[in-house]
Amino acid sequence: MGGRESHGTGFAERIIPLSADADCPAPGADVHSIIACKPFVFFGIQCRRVVIKTLSCARRKTMIEVFAILLVVGLLWLAVSVVGLVLKLVLGLVVGLFSVFGGLLALLLGLLMLPVVALLALPLFLPLALMIGLVWLLARAVRRPVATAAPNPR
Questions:
Q1: pLDDT of residue 111
Q2: How far is Cα 32 from Cα 54, in angstroms, rounded to an integer?
Q3: Contact by Cβ (8 Å): 47, 17
Q4: How far apart are CA 142 and CA 146, in angstroms?
Q5: Whole-model pTM?
Q6: Quick one: CA dihedral 131, 134, 140, 141, positive or negative?
Q7: Facing residues of 11 across strands?
Q8: Does the pLDDT at position 141 exceed 60?
Q9: Are 6 and 13 in contact (CB under 8 A)?
Q10: Are 34 and 28 in contact (CB under 8 A)?
Q11: How far apart are CA 71 and CA 13, in angstroms?
Q12: pLDDT band at 46 (very low <50, low <70, confident <90, very high)
């Protein structure tokens, strides 16, 4: 029976015929680290499936170097993200304060300009106000007085 290498994982799986007195080896008993050993029946033959860790030292070193590079890049990314978050928060608060002060200033200027705008609009609304007053006076003059009941002398 043969074995097969899993692609890119560094683990080899071997199917070995199992004799009656043999048992699965203990993990770490071989030059390679045994990860799993499982007895099973293969076409009527008692076998065992052994998964062996086959990473070489050079490959392990490369993986550690790649992990270190990714860790540094990830930490730098996290630091820059935190700095960006703090800047966004501070600038948002500053812009919010400017907006509040700008709104209060606009309200104050609006209240100060209200009498000036009313005086400037007086020539436009004066004829309208005079006409409304004339209609009110005429309606009041034409109206008859309401008859009041005489007090009951008892």
A1: 95
A2: 6
A3: yes
A4: 12
A5: 0.37
A6: negative
A7: 53
A8: yes
A9: yes
A10: yes
A11: 31
A12: low
